[in-house]
Amino acid sequence: MKPQPNSLPLLAFCLLGAIWGSNFIYMKLAVELITPTQVVFFRVLFGFIPVAIYAYLSDTLSWTHLKHSGHFLIMALLATALYYYGFAMAAALLLSGVAGALSGAIPLFTFLLAVLFIAEEKATRLKIAGVLIGFVGVVMIGRPSGDDLMSTNLEGVFYMVAGSLSVGASFVYAKRYVIPLKIPPAALTTYQLGLGLLLLALFTSHDGITNIFTDTHASAGLIVGLGLLGTGLAYILYYYIVEQLGAISASSVTYIPPVVALLIGALIVGEPIELADYGATLLIFTGVFLLKKK
Known about the structure:
Elements: H1 8-30, H2 36-57, H3 69-93, H4 96-102, H5 106-117, H6 125-141, H7 154-178, H8 185-203, H9 216-245, H10 247-251, H11 256-268, H12 275-291
């Protein structure tokens, strides 16, 4: 039975959550064969292709936009290169489900930066409580594991926090400097990924980069799952949801990826995810939920 048109935004919402949630297992498989920087390069390369095609076909690209290249470059750094690199490094150090759970904390860092740099963003008591509760969850995931105190998740958590701070900073920067430009989202994404790809091409080593193609599952996951779907299609779906449901409703999609990542890690991959990790994820969700309260 063909779905009704008004059900398409909801389907896109669920699909986007599932795609983003699966990103972490694809990164985990890829970093076992190539470096995190190489993973990010492939991700951006194959994510850029569908976005650029979509932007071209929708006639949103314009040479006049080049005068804003400085803003696009900053977004390429914050919302592409540094963001993806932090998450790829975390995937190399953490269980994929745990890394995915930590991604739910992105709104916490976005809020903190917004309070610091956007005058109209106010820190109410309820929102402060949400941030504190959410950070308790982050600390719980970064706890020492096993008997050896040196065997901890702290380095992986650091990279997840760094990546989350980077993308959080990109939201704040975009709100202040990019959104007022009134450039179509598809064009903005094309410029951002394109410049990010150029930066990564300059700094990515080619040594051992072809190792990814020795494993069909890992290479397909990186190119199709992480690149074409997790980056390219994900951006297109996200802007479609924003257009159809509004930015506030669209932002709620961040609740889905941590759950999907945990389920994939625990049920499909068989990762030894502990009860405390689920509790920490619940605390992060609670903190983010409180941030959305007036």
